[in-house]
Amino acid sequence: MKTPKEIVEGMMAQDAFSHLLGMKLLLIDKGLCTLQCEVTKEMANGFGIAHGGITYSLADSALAFAANAHGTHCFSVDTNIAHLKKVKLGDVLTAICTESHRGKRTGVYVVEIQNQDAKRVAYFRGTVFIGSEAW
């Protein structure tokens, strides 16, 4: 059986979008993941701040890695995000994903996204379907 790190490194090797956003894996374990990325000018919206899709994408990747780190293919079935503070160009975002429930077929995860000052800028919750295929 592969380790959580081997599983996620394999996923990231094929994940062009996470690479495009410059995501860096800081921590991985079963049900836990911490990712980081810096907000660049290419991530700005029409107001000159980070597009909401940036925090969403960072959280969604953290969810995927935390859930799949158990060794079984998982797929998100429901997600939502609350944007709490504006995210500026140059901010370094950290997504901290924790598993709050894992059953036989579903798992629930919470992701807190913080800026470089440890201020929470977004809160994300996601539910995954736990498949039967092993990594």
Can you walk through the features of this model?
With 135 residues, this protein is α+β, with helices and mostly antiparallel strands. The chain has one domain: Roll (Thiol Ester Dehydrase, Chain A), CATH 3.10.129.10. The chain is 24% helix and 44% strand. It has a 6-stranded antiparallel beta sheet. The longest helix is centred in the middle third of the chain and has 17 residues.
Summarize the structure.
This protein is α+β, with helices and mostly antiparallel strands.
Please outline the helices and strands.
Layout: H1 4-13, H2 16-20, E1 24-29, E2 32-38, H3 52-68, E3 72-83, E4 92-102, E5 106-114, E6 120-134
Antiparallel strand pairs: 1-2, 2-4, 3-6, 4-5, 5-6
Query: What name goes with the CATH superfamily?
Result: Hotdog Thioesterase
Number of domains: 1
What is the CATH class designation? Alpha Beta
Biggest beta sheet summary: 6 strands, antiparallel
Strand % is 35-45%
Notable characteristics:
single chain, 135 residues, alpha+beta, Thiol Ester Dehydrase, Chain A, six-stranded antiparallel β-sheet, 6 strands, globular
